[in-house]
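#structure-requests
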Amino acid sequence: MEAIRENGHRDTSDAAFNQSAQWPLLRANYSNELYGVVAHEVGHGPGSLGEGHDHNELGLMIKVGQQIGGSEGVFKPSTIRRFRMAENWNK
């Protein structure tokens, strides 16, 4: 969580953290990035063919990560197909 906080808010001015009107946006961005990282890491589990293959599926599985939601912050059809074809989610 600390790495996400440092990376995601590195370019945010100190003044923004002190303006209560900015807090909902900062909180939403942080939460969406945190959820995106968690989903990405869970996505490596079922039916994984290796980190490189998983990252080529794009969407939430790209190497640099995505915030959850939007057109890119979702599991793409190739990832969903891999999930559905996985014999065991414990691998």
